[in-house]
Each structure stands twice: as C-alpha cells, then as structure tokens.
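Appendix B. Raw example, untouched.
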Amino acid sequence: MTGLTGQGLASLPPARGVRRGRFSLGLTITATIIGVLLLLPLVAVLVDASQAGWAEFSTVLFRTRSLELLVNTLALPLIVTPLAAAIGTAAAWFTERTALPGRRIWTVLLVLPIAMPDFIVGYAWHSIAPTASPLGAAVLVMTLSSYPLIYLPVAAALRRSDPALEEAARSLGLSSARTFFRVVLPSIRSAILGGCLIVVLVLVSEYGAFEIVRFQTFTTEVFTEFQVNPAAAGALSIPLVLIGVLVVVGEGLVPIPRSSQRPGMRRTSLIPLGPGAVGVIAAFVGLVALAVVVPVGTLLYWMANSQHSTLPAQATVLAATLTTCKYCAGGAQLAVLLALPIALLSARSRRGLPLIIERSTYLTLALPGVVIAVSLIFLSLRFAFAIYESSWLVMIGYAIITFPLALSCMKTSVRQAPAQLATVGRSLGRSAPYVFLRVTLPLIAPGIIAGFCLVFLTASTELTATLVLQPPDTVTLTTQFWAFQSETAYGAAAPYGLVIIVLSMVPGTLLAIWFDRLGQNR
C-alpha cells in the first residue's frame, strides 16, 4: 500500500462486493435528519412570531425604535468589517511575505484577541472610558475582537498560494504595493470575503459587548423584550433571521478559485522592510496592547484596587470553571458528532441535496444566542419536557450555535484526506464503515480536534444563551461575571474574567497552530 503512487491509487478498480450504495444512502439520510434538526430553532422562531399575530408583529417592527435598531444593526458591520479586513489582511501579508523581525512570534500574538471574549473587552474599555460614544466604543471593541477572523484564513491562503507569480511581477518592475493589488489580492479575495461574512454574522448576533457600552441593536432589544414580552422578542427576531439569510446566501455566491499551489512548490523570497520594520512592529505592538494588554491589565487593576462586593457570589471560581468546562466539552462533542456526517457528505458532492444541507446549517450562525435559546425553550416545553432546565439543553444550545464552526474545520480536513486510500481499503474487501474507522477517521482527526477546540472556545465565551438556558442554581464563568459587572462590582467580576481568558487561551492556541499547519500543507 505504501509503495503505490498517486496515479496507481487512482487507477485501482472499484471494490467488489462492497455495499457502497447502502453506506452512501445511510450517510445522506443521517445528514438530512441532522440538517432538519438544526433548523428547528429557526422554525420555532417563525412559529412563535406567527402566533403573536399581525397586530403585535406590526406594532413592534413598524415603530421609530425599530428603525433606530435597524440602522445601528446595519451601520456597525459597514464600519467594522472594512476596518477588520484592512487590519487582518495587512497583518497577514506582513507576517507571511516580509522579513519582519520575529514574524513567527507575531503570528501567535496577533491571534491572541480571538481568545478574548467581546464582553470582557467591552467591560475593560467601558470601565476606562464610561462616557465614550456608544458607537465609537462598539467599533473599537468589535474591530479589535474580529480582525483575527480575517487574519487567520488570509494567512493560510498566502501560505498555500504560488509565489512564482508574485516574483515574476516584481521582476518586471512592479513595486511591492502594485504587486499586492494586482497579483496577491485576487488570489486571497475569497479568504478575505469569507472572513468578512463571518465578521458580519458575529456583529449581528453580538450582545454582551454592546449591552456594556450601551450600543443598542436588534439583538440587545430581543434579549430585553424576552424578559418582559416574549411575543415582541419573537417579532424582533424576524429581521435578524432575514439578515442572516442574506449573509449566508451572499457567502454562497463568493467564488472559490482553485488553489495555485503546486507539488514541490518553494517558498517565496521574503521582502525586506528596512527601516519600515520599526513602524510595522510599533503598529503590531499597539494592536496587541489595545486588544489584549488593556483588557487583562484592567482586570488585574480591578482585582487589586476594588473593594469587595456586597453581592454574594452564586458559585466560586472553581465551581463555575468546572461547570463551564462540563457544558463546553459536552457541547463541543455533540457539535463535532453532528457535523461529521454532513462534512463527509459535502466532501462527496458539492451539488444538489448535499449542498443544500450544508448551506442551510450555516443559518444557525446568523441567529443570536438568545433567539436559539428561546426557541429551544419553546421546543422543550412542548416536545421534550424532560430536558427543560437541564444541562442537556445548555449543551444542545452550544452545539447548535457553534455547529457551522465545527463543520468548517472538519469539512476542510475531509476534503484533504486522500480518497484513493479509502479506495484501496475497499478493494481489499473491507466494508465502508471499517475503512472509515481505520483509514479515513485517523486522517481527518486533526480537523475534528480543531473543530472541538473552536467550539469549546466559542462556547466558553457564550453569554446570552447561557443566561437563558442554564439550570436553576447553576452558574458558569460568563454568567457570574455578568452578574457582578451588571452591578458595577468590577473587582468581584475580575477573577471570573481572567479565568475565562485563560480557559480560552488553550483551545485558541491549538486552533492557531492548526491554521498554521493547514496553510503550510495545503
């Protein structure tokens, strides 16, 4: 087996006696059922809104307040997304294409903000400048938090792109700037646009940071209305669903060019920066300081200087950490388990039903956590009362919210796994499930681990769904932090915030390593 060439593997005859049709049919049925289950929260939102009646629907949506919320909800992505794209793309180019001193260290430092929860960054800046403009504060917080979502895929795209075209352009007299815009930018366009669309979804569904800096959007209003008028909350969720659909459809229209990487392709020669390296390093230091050092420093400051809060803690730091790890690990396991059949089906075909199933699951990323949480309560009360107010409902919520993230990581690994090896296994008379467990699964394991880490990281900083779904007398790090900071007990909230950051650093670091290796191997 190890001595066969790629051409020899491709020329092997199909396996005899292997029931591939039955396995493929079972995979399709399983993936379809999972896709339908993931869309149930969306159906519940529509049903709940329809039960409110047209009078309630029109009263809530067609008012001046709703127009203001719509402007805020749309204005922020229009400002933040270009800023995050510019920062993320520039940072990726400098670390991947220039002889920047310590550039491998910067590839790690520049990703650290992905482990910083948005509401903690908002808490830090709001405690420093409580009178700052809500829009300005929201732009600052979300730009610092979201640029890694563009930096990571762009850096990976630059590593796998063919350097010959860039070197040819420079040899013809084009400057580095003109080479970037005429040669490099078209090759990384899909990575940039894909990252931008993820940033838009994050901005639309964000709650914690906006609530802290007093910037009101549809998501913050939905959470507020849910506590006093669930019917109004359901009506306000409809615009969010429509925005999410438009974003997901837009993501599907982004062209995906074929990779320009060739076997044995050498690395591009690094561009010397000369005296300009000082300016780039200063900019990177400032960026990391604003996104990471300021929030961590603020937490340490409040721990050292704030008086003890009279508000009693519902759980110690250790108890809240254990509960958080339990919920996040359970949600991550469920998410990767559900994503695996769809990833396998998507790798087999990018047309028809597999494409529809895959694209539809991304709608869950467009729904704010509070909307999914409310939908799960609606469904559990009517059809699964046994899991109502249980830890299972929290983990199911985490799995639904983060499912597209797990699918993205696993889909990449599945598509990279050599299909010829599975063909060899089947040609030896092994069944399709046996070949999957012994051949395919070990090959896609890195993607599964990356998906687990990304889901764990995202779930550990999830706020709104946790506030709504957590069982009585159960507290996580995020909900205890939120309870203290809501009462301006910054010193009491700080330890929980620091543990959240530390807990997020581990999967965040593993995720950065995976992206780094992915970009080098593709």
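End of appendix B.
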